[in-house]
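Exam review. A common question shows you a sequence with its structure tokens and asks you to describe the fold in words. Practice with the pair below. Do the first one on your own.
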Amino acid sequence: MEICVSFQTITITFYLFIPLIVALGLSYFSHKSIAHVSSRVITGNDEVPYLQRLLVAFISILLPSFVCVFCIYLTFFLLHHFSLTLEKLTEVFHTIGHQIIMVFLINRIAVSLLSPKMAPVRLLNIAPSSAYQLIILLTLLGGVLALDAVFDSIYWAVSASLSLTIAKSFIAVFLVGVLLFIIAFIPLQFRRKRFQNEEIKPLPWPLYIRIPLFVLGLFLIVMDFLGYIGLARFVVQLIVTSSAFLILMYLGIQSTRAIASKGEFIKTGIGHTLMKWFHFEEKTMDQLGVVISILLNVVVFVLCTVPIIGKFGFSYSEIGALFWQLMTGFQIGNMSISLISIVMGIVVFFVCLFIIRLFICWLDGTVMERGEFDLGVRNSIKTVISYGGIALSVLLGVSTAGFNLSSLALVAGGLSLGIGFGLQNIVQNFVSGLIILIGRPFKLGDYVESGSVRGIVKRISVRATELETFQRQTIIIPNSNLINNNVNNWTRRSKMGRIDIPLTVATNVDPEYVVQILLEIASATEGVLKNPAPQVNFTGFDKQNFSFTLAIYVPNITSTSKVNNALRFMLYKRFLKKGF
């Protein structure tokens, strides 16, 4: 029996050492992480930007506080699991754990803001000696409030007398008021040296800080002696707790601004890893940084708001129930809205979109490329699958979000009415785009002409087609114009084309001799096809001139400048030599 008891005692003791071991491991990781971030921010003698100092301060608060919270709650779990506490003392242990977390948080906020050992990342320009005094006083302030709460819990557990509770609260409120007086009169150092040998004297707090601290301390002491101990205690707990979490919220929100800044997310370890694995562009990484910044802002806001709301009399169970109701669903009229379903719908939409993109890349790079599909066919297939995938992703996302698709009939009716009036051209362009993608009267790279516009097709979408002229001008033509009007496709079957060069010669020259010279020059010009052979048409004459048209064929109708220039130079030289 004794052996069994001893073994059980050893087992329980071992499990109780787990939080200590975990705390040591996480503390080492936290210290290394903070040192790594600080070393990346502090470079040489350059002044560290304000946003980066905020980021260091926020991480210096968040990581150690997370370690403290995790270890405290792990201890709660083990104590409850092995039934090592009496039922009456459970609330006492919970209060002690929560107050340890609160005092630790106040200490970390003070150390991170004042940073007496790390001047480059210090947020407040305060002398190191004053910074140490402030850190000690703020920690003592948190400790007094923590002891007050712990003794409250103990007195409640042992059913202590009311007079003892009032005396304890009187002493706690009085000590807090005295500490605020001391903090208000600590000498500081805000002004920098204007020249090297100038002696800097410590300066007091600015009036806009000193006066509120003095008034608050005086208010607490006066209320304490007048007998309004509960009011004074409520005010000081509310101010201290709210100030701590509001500072933490400010640091968190400002730190996420640094992540959302252009080019900053790439510099982080996570951003560098994502860019290395997925080969994202810099613009995509900046957009991802903005999204992560928004998500972190929401998390920081929720985590810092809940403790502040709790000080107004709401229990954590009530706050949790309200939050769960907001997340799972609430009614607005006849419509039920669930934030979790909406988030899941957005996730499903982006996941489906990502899968569609992967499928298109696989189809284009594996099947169509090896099958030697025409470039226009490949583009048409990719475009149709892309738009179909977007439509499917939207439907799946909307369904997952909990919206009834049958209720969209009213929306469809409204759209039908809109199509009859304002959306007519949009739908016409959309249908025309589908006809172009399926019928393929032209494809990417074709040289087309429609009315007074001509150029090379660069992009075909369901709304418009993009042309690029030889002057590098981009022209966007609605698809309905291309369907309803004539379109000349110079390269539909092949890029070979004909160039007509008109010219006139005086009537004192034999026209047959002119034809012979034109054919000789055309055949000798580089870039002119021999088959089909060049042709000369005698198009007309009058009393002074004979009119001819030289028709030549080139292999690529989209690049004729070189052949045109060479041919005209040779014609000019030969005519000048013959005296035409």
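Now try the second one, then compare your answer with the model answer below.
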Amino acid sequence: MKKIIVLMIFLATAGFSTQKERAFDVGEWFKFRIHYGIV
């Protein structure tokens, strides 16, 4: 279970870091995910 979560976090951060125009930073994205209980 933890490996899946780590993999998802890695893919999310890698995906966001490659985008030049982001709506928000990765940290804000994690706050959003954690706030709504998606993670």
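Model answer, second protein: The chain has one domain: 2-35. The two ends are 12 Å apart (CA to CA). Full marks require stating both points clearly.
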